Amino acid sequence: MAEKLQDSYLAAHDQLYRTLRMRIMYGEMRPGQAITLRGVAEEFSVSVTPVREALKRLAAEGALSISVSGRFQTPALTNDRIEELAALRALIEVELATRALPRAHMALVERLQSINNSISVAVARADAVTYIRTNLEFHRTLYLRAQAPAMLATVETVWLQMGPTMRALYGRLQRKDPPMHHRLILAALKAGDEPGLRVAVRADVTQGLRMLAR
Amino acid sequence: MAEKLQDSYLAAHDQLYRTLRMRIMYGEMRPGQAITLRGVAEEFSVSVTPVREALKRLAAEGALSISVSGRFQTPALTNDRIEELAALRALIEVELATRALPRAHMALVERLQSINNSISVAVARADAVTYIRTNLEFHRTLYLRAQAPAMLATVETVWLQMGPTMRALYGRLQRKDPPMHHRLILAALKAGDEPGLRVAVRADVTQGLRMLAR
DNA sequence: CATGCGTATTTGTGATCACAATTACCTTTG
DNA sequence: CAAAGGTAATTGTGATCACAAATACGCATG
Taking CB atoms and an 8 Å limit, are A56 and B61 in contact across chains? Predict the structure, then answer.
């Protein structure tokens, strides 16, 4: 069955899934970009069977859309859908941050500050992919403390769906805007200020909405 | 490619997915029940290829769990996980109900009351599967009015994960308890009472939690 | 130059097979 | 009677192939 030995090997379709998922979530693909079974199969030197599983799984999570004829492509979201996904992010991420708050010790805050510095570097370089990845890493690091794996998995699915769109939106994003809301989040974490934390997280998540509502 | 003609045909793997998904969501399978590729393939007279896609997709949504050796089975949830999923339900369903409220006209309330009657019948018959299905139909009918497909899809994934557990829990459920909280929901809908609606939905969703916390 | 039309290529689907690993069952042994 | 060992059956994985549908391309026609 070619399963894992120790903790290193992975099934081919799982490896494909993780790789493609990262590409999509971190904005390495444009909205509407087509993906073919044989194209991916050739790139990774496997047959179409494991590719089909990986693409179907991604499609099931909303990371890919399937045309009426069965073709795969990254989703091109409508404004309504983007707004809804942002609202879903706000809903769940505020809850996750609240649950993480009582468990957020100094070591965590320091790690978050370190990640925040990486985000600033990415912003300075105008590196969209690194920006998106480190930004999500900031949120994921915080939410991992919430000890709520189902909620985290759900919000990651939302991130996945928004990946290509976030990349496309990054072009018209702020220029010299280091993570402002992240500083508010860190301050609230240090002060143990739950209402302030909720407001800061909500603001950070819905921030990207403004520049598309026009 | 064997795609749809008009609006009736479905690809084999999609048909499998929908059928198995209903079985799981509506509590027709026990927690921990094993599912095999060739078993399903024989039951539906197809090869293992489409079965694999359907099972993998269900596993990706949390409807099935995969053992370390790759075997499929319905998930046996821990109490912590159940509690988290219920909290996630409450979070999203309160939002969906709130969004549906301004669009809930009399015709919708009447449909909900009709579904409620079906629930009472299922309770009287002690028919667990019908109870679960009609109960979810009540919620889905309301939430469809929210015009928030991503949120609805997310909460349906949660329902899916809880399906087998809900069935197992139904045995120790109330006996002669017709949908009490549903009446509160309907009353709040008629009165346009948003705070009351939110409380009623949250109570209905977290209700089932009490009987397992012991 | 634009518009159909027909052919060739591309693409996803499902069946089948070989394979390796896990699991189940039965026999043997203490 | 219980535990251990070994064989047989079961199971998921991935490759390959045939097929049908959709798409792309080129040619002829107005």
Answer: no
- Could you give the ipTM of this predicted complex? 0.88
pLDDT at position B5 is 34
> A48-59, pLDDT tens digit by residue?
999 999 999 999
Domain coordinates of chain A in residue numbers? 12-73, 79-212
CA of A145 to C1' of C11 (A): 44
Which segments of A101-193 does DSSP mark as H helices, in order? 106-125, 128-144, 149-170, 180-191
CATH of B79-212, one of 3.30.450.200, 3.50.50.60, 1.20.120.530, 3.30.429.10: 1.20.120.530
Higher pLDDT, B154 or A11: B154
Residues 6+ apart with CB under 8 A from A8: none
Task: Identify the pLDDT of residue A109.
Answer: 96
Domain B12-73 has CATH 1.10.1520.10: no
Collapsed DSSP state (helix, strand, coil) of residue A145:
coil
Q: E strand or H helix at B73, and its extent?
A: strand B72-73
- The B-side interface with A (CB below 8 A) comprises 1, 3-4, 11, 13, 49, 52-53, 56-57, 60-62, 68-70, 81, 84-85, 87-88, 91-92, 95, 148-151, 153-154, 157-158, 161
Over residues B152-198, the pLDDT tens digits come to 999 999 999 999 998 888 776 665 667 889 999 999 999 999 999 99
Q: Which CB contacts under 8 angstroms, 24+ apart, belong to A55-61?
A: A55/A20, A56/B13, A56/B53, A56/B56, A56/B57, A57/A17, A57/B56, A57/B57, A57/B60, A58/A17, A58/A20, A58/A21, A58/A24, A58/A160, A60/B57, A60/B60, A60/B61, A61/A157, A61/A160, A61/A161, A61/B60, A61/B61
